[in-house]
Amino acid sequence: MSAKQQVITIDDISADNAPAIYVAGGLGQFFDAVKAEVTGEVPDLTTRKGRERIASLAATVSKSKKAVETPGRDYLKRLKEMPKVVEAELRDFVTKMDNLRDTTRQPLTDWEKAEQARKDKHVDGIQAIKDLAVFEATPAAAHVAQIIADLELVEISDAWEEFLAEAAQVKDQTLAKLRALHAERAQYEAEQAELTRLRLEKEARDKKDNEDRIAREAAEQATREAEAKALRDREAESQRVRDDQAAAEKRESDLKLQAAEAERQAEQAKREKIEAEQKAERDRLQGIEDQKRAVEQARLDEKARADAAADEILRQQRERQADVAHKSKILGEAKQALIGMNISEELAKAIVLKIARGEVPNVTIQF
Q1: pTM of full prediction above 0.70
Q2: What is the Cα–Cα distance from 242 to 13, expressed in whole angstroms?
Q3: In the chain, where are the structural domains located?
Q4: pLDDT digits over 344-362, tens only?
C-alpha cells in the first residue's frame, strides 16, 4: 500500500474501527504515510509555485492530523463514559443476583428461624425453671412452698423434644434446691416464732413484776410521806414555840443594845470632833512644811539642771578640743610626710588642707 493510499484511508476512520486503530503504536502508520507524502519532494522556494506547494503540504499535514485526532477524541470520550455505564450495569446485575439468591434461600432461612425459635423456647423454659430457685432477698417458707407446688405442676413430656432429658434434670435439681431451702426457712421461721413467743411471755412477766413493784413502792412511799408529815408538824409546832420565845428575848436584847449604841455613838461623835480639830491643825502645819520642802526641792532641781548643763558644755568643749588636737596631729603627720618628699612646708600645708577640705578628687585623709 502506497503512502498516498494510506493518507486517504485516514478519512475512513470511524467508531467501528476505532478500537483497533487507537492502540499503542496504532497511529504510527498514519504518521509514516503523511511524513512520506510531505517529505517525498523538495519544492523550489524561489518560485511562487514552489512556495504554494510547501503551504499545501503543510495544510495536508494539518488536515490529516485533524482527520485522525477528531475521531480519536470522540472515541476517548466514549471510553471515559464507559466506566459509568459498566458500573450501572454491574450494580443492577448484583442487585438482581442478591435478590435471586435471597429468594432462592428464603425457605431455608425461614426454616432456620423457626428452628432457632423452637430451640430458644425450650432453652428459655429451662432457664425459667432454674430462675425459680434464684431470689433477690431471702424468701418466706410459704412463698417457697408455693413455688414448689407450681413447679411440680410443670409437665415434662415429649413436648420438650430433644430437650426432654435436660428439662427433667433441671426440674429435679431445682425442686431439690427449693425443698432444701423450704426446710431451712421453715425451721428458721419456727425457731423465730418460738423465740418471739418466749420474748412476749417474758415481756408480760416483766410488765406484771414491774407493775407490782410500782404498786408496792407507791404504798411504801405513801406510808413514809404520812410519817414524815406528822414528824414535820410536830417539829413545826416546837419550832414555833422556840421562835416566839427567841423573838421576845431578841426584842428585849435589841432595846438594850439600842440604848448602849446611842450612848456609844454620842461618845464616838465627841471623840471624832476632837480628832477632826487636831487633824485639821496637823494638816495646816504639814501643808506649811510641805510647801517649804517643795520650794527647796525646786531650787535644788534647778541647780542640778544648771550644773548638768554646764558639765555638758565643758564635755563638748573638751571633745571638740580633743578632736581638733587629733586632726591637727593627723594633718601635721601628713604635712611632715610631704615635707620628707622635698616639698616646702607651705606647699605641704596647702596640699594637706586642700585634701582635708575634700577639694582633691578621690583622695581623703583618715582621721
Answers
A1: no
A2: 164
A3: 3-107
A4: 989 988 998 888 888 888 8
